[in-house]
């Protein structure tokens, strides 16, 4: 998971009952997302609002990604990590399974982490939670013009076929917008909403032309 202070956590096992994690790797980055420090520990235990790491090794890196100084080994070490067990437990969830409030809180926590790409992708996931409910409505609106065509002309099968193709193209446009947004070309809000706005305008224009 991505944490505060430009840290990226990799944890093999986490035991909520004992507030213990095993197989810990922490990567620290600077504002340009260059690796500056790596911490590896066998185990971490949360006691008295502090993380105590056991058998930890700390590596420091220069801007070229090369290790500088001798790695520091400690049998026990008190870590200044602001994240508590609840933070690690919450982030075991995928963004898709988070509520809007949970995802918004996670993005806020990461806002100063320097993880630009991750924050951008999470914002797209957040905006999708707002726009997704409109998909069914837009599909219905896109189908109305072709339903009217069924009543006006004897082109039942062709109208149904065209409506399926239009709906398919709508989903493709949505996927393309999301992909471009994750690549940083579109802002998260535009990436999550462009296809829906386009589909809405297109469907209303079709309905207006049929009336």
UniProtKB/TrEMBL annotation:
Sequence intervals crossing the membrane: 130-148, 154-173, 185-210
GO (cellular component) term, any one: ATP-binding cassette (ABC) transporter complex
Statement: the UniProt record of this protein carries the keyword GTP-binding: no
One BP term from GO: lipopolysaccharide transport
Keyword tags: Cell membrane, Membrane, Transmembrane, Transmembrane helix
Cellular compartments annotated: Cell membrane
Recorded topology in the membrane: Multi-pass membrane protein
Pfam families found in the cross-reference section: LptF_LptG (PF03739)
Keyword Transmembrane helix: yes
Superkingdom of source: Bacteria
Protein's name in the database: LptF/LptG family permease
Protein source organism: Candidatus Sherwoodlollariibacterium unditelluris
The organism's taxonomic lineage, starting at the top: Bacteria, Pseudomonadati, Candidatus Omnitrophota, Candidatus Sherwoodlollariibacterium
């Amino acid at each position: 998971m991505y944490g505060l202070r430009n840290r990226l956590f990799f944890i093999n096992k986490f035991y909520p009952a004992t507030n213990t994690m095993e197989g810990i790797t922490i990567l620290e980055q600077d504002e340009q997302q260059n690796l500056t420090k790596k911490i590896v520990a066998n185990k971490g235990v949360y006691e008295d609002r502090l993380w105590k790491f056991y058998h930890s090794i700390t590596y420091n890196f220069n801007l070229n990604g090369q290790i500088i100084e001798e790695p520091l080994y400690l049998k026990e070490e008190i870590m200044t990590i602001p994240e508590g067990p609840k933070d690690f437990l919450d982030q075991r969830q995928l963004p898709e399974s988070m509520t809007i409030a949970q995802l918004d809180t996670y993005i806020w926590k990461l806002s100063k982490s320097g993880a630009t790409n991750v924050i951008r992708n999470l914002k797209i996931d957040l905006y999708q939670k707002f726009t997704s409910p409109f998909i069914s409505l837009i599909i219905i609106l896109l189908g109305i013009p072709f339903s009217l065509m069924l009543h006006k002309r004897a082109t039942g099968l062709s109208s149904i076929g065209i409506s399926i193709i239009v709906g398919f193209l709508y989903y493709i446009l949505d996927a393309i917008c999301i992909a471009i947004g994750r690549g940083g070309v579109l802002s998260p809000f535009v990436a999550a909403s462009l296809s829906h706005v386009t589909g809405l305008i297109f469907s209303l224009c079709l309905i207006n032309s049929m009336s």
